[in-house]
Please model this.
Amino acid sequence: MSPTKNKFEQLCHIFKEVTHLRSVRRLLNWDQETYMPQKGQTNRAEQNATLSRLIHKQVASKKTGQLIEELFAVVEPKNPDNDMYVCLRQWRRDFNRQKKLPTKLVEELSRQAVLAHEAWVKARERSDFSVFLPLFKSLVHLSRQKAKCLGFSKSPYDALLDEYEQGATAYELDKLFSRLVPPLKTLTQKVFDKSRGLAKEFSGPFPISGQKTMAQIAIVKIGFDMTAGRIDTVVHPFSTKIGPGDCRITTRWNIQDFTEGFFGILHEAGHGIYSQNLPTKWYGTPLGESVSLGVHESQSRFWENIVGRSRAFWSHFLPIAKGIFPGSLCMLDLDKFVRVINKVEPSYIRVEADEVTYNLHIYLRFVIEKELIEGKLQPEDVPDRWNRLFKELLGLEVPKDSMGCLQDVHWSGGSFGYFPTYTLGNIYAAMIREALTKEIPEIETMISAGEFQPIFNWLRDKIHIHGQRFSPTDLIRHATGKKPSSEPLIHYLETKFSQLFG
Ligand code: CO
Model:
């Protein structure tokens, strides 16, 4: 074996172990959200801290850094077709980030995140921000320290963003939102006026077993492999890739409204399909990992909204739903139903928001967390700041914090910089739609016939199989032929909603 090959093998071995440790941490996280008893939190916090320390030690070790630099000196640079170069580029990024962080800080963040999660659950139940505040303060403080250690050129928030979306900056996001928010506010008002009187013309109960059957039929049809994944019930739905052949998705069910759980599952299955189609032969290296949260979210939002909330989709699925729930749905009219599931209305809860108002919810969170990390907003002032911004953007008074700043899980996990990836996901999804429609013009007819294979193949070949070969924006550029921009999203929303509501 050549010395280069040998060193590369050594690095592969190191990062295979790191990948295993990270996957174990995700499994514990999944368990915490699904089955762990409440009193297990203290032990789980320690387990988490231990794993984070081990990962940090392994990635930031002198040996890892040395191997990476030695190989970088001999590898053909900047060629994304060169597998070794891609792995080294991404490993160096991982190494540089970890190396700048003191072990103590990594451990402490990991521990506090578990404890804060439990405090947040209680605070949210009682709608009492003060229950969450001490741990929230500590997480903001630790995250600001983290940003300082990592370094940044303009905003400390950039250092945190980069973890979820490589290369994203507050400056670029500000620009993006400034082009997106005004047309969305206008569109919200217009469509809200038109869809105001629209009533749900179906009512439950929809037995959970039937809902599960229906969701499973749908996700298997779009390409989720049930022999390599499972569905569990949680309070806050998510999906997680444990490793090849093991992808967990979760949802919550509403007995009165089958669409809630259904769209939730469709969303998480979109994430799951991406995870399941990453190249297994590269597992343990960056080529076997998803490229960013923004691209991940583009996959889930594409299936949930662009496909799942289309008329074509329901012309195929409504008859199936009627077969499962004959009593409750037999009289349901396709056109009315499609309008109901696309109703636009300013509302409090992000995860229940329609496609038009959704990104306004994200913009609000982006503003607040940027201000927190930049030290311009104090943690105790978040409820007030939230409520004022909410009124400005969505025109509603927030009646209590559980419907306001306590609704999301992210900050309790110390995930600052995560939220903007949702809007990036929507932007990418609309770009994907545009490109896909150009390449496969008969796409709607296919969806109406329940034929999803061509879409699945397109996404697999253009997005999934590339792992981290390209940067997120380059991957989108390769797949769609265009630089990321918010125009396709605005165009998609304006066209869709003017067709639906006139
Ligand atoms: Co998602």
About this structure: The chain has two domains: 3-151, 171-501. The chain has a mean pLDDT of 94. The first strand starts at residue 229 and ends at 233. The two ends are 68 Å apart (CA to CA).
